[in-house]
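step: validate -> pass
step: tokenize input -> pass
step: predict -> running
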Amino acid sequence: MQDRNQPFDLTNASQQAQTGSNLYRSRPMFVNLKNRLHLPGITELLAPCTQHLTSSQYKRMMSAWQSMDQFAVYGFVQYSKVIGIISIELDGEGSARILSIAVQPNQQRRGLGRRLVVESFCSLNLDSLTAKTLEDNLVFYKKLNFLVGHPQSQSNGYEVYSCILTRQAMYQAYAHEYSAGAVLYREKNGAREYVLVTELSGNTGLPKGHLEAGETEEVTALREIYEETGITATLVPGFDGQIVYPQGRGMLKHFTYFLAVFDESQEPESGVDVIAHILPYDQALRKLSFADVRSILKKAEEFLNSRGK
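step: predict -> pass
step: emit ->
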């Protein structure tokens, strides 16, 4: 799984990649750039579409992207430098539009532009994404299953095409793989504790696994809980969390997370392939490796707190 907004030490990652002590860090990582707009490479990438702005206008634009919830900025980082960027404006109703998208010239034709669009679409859980483009870029959007509208003539003589990508159209271009799991917790001595699992890869997440033939998502979640932690749990109604992300060029992975509770007489046991942890909320949130999974845990904590009230 790509980083999907996971915080990491960019400087250290660069040093590790250069010394060869951690070679996988040399691969481009998809990250949330909203609070990292100072990183090298961003100004260079945005130059073609911001050259008409004055210095103060450019600063105001970057400030708005960073401070206003309606804007999202994602990118790929390699050796501490941003090599691809996409900025998006959301309408708050599941739709959004691309403001800018750019990839460093020496990184083009490697699929980074496509991945910027698909990763952002999934991270923002969009229903549709629109873009306006010149004819030169239509091939890029058509390959991503954008529906292209009729051109509109501009005052400068250019013709601009409106393109739209729906969730259904994007999903048609991919194979799909489904998994289910749960936010697993207990109440003990008046305190709430959550169970996490660390995989052989070193990533820490929530108990989960692939749906087997004939299984419902609920059955899979309970089976995976037992297999990974040894706990017999009960699903709590009214909660679910969804994560979708691309895996390679042709696969979308879907994760459904339920909420599950177990009694204090049980203790989690590590499995063959995972190490189980039981932690209070704050520690569990910090230990999770990925931001999208942290958002599921946050949602569960808020759900439980509101239910208690």
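step: describe -> The CA atoms of residues 74 and 120 lie 7 Å apart.
step: cleanup -> pass
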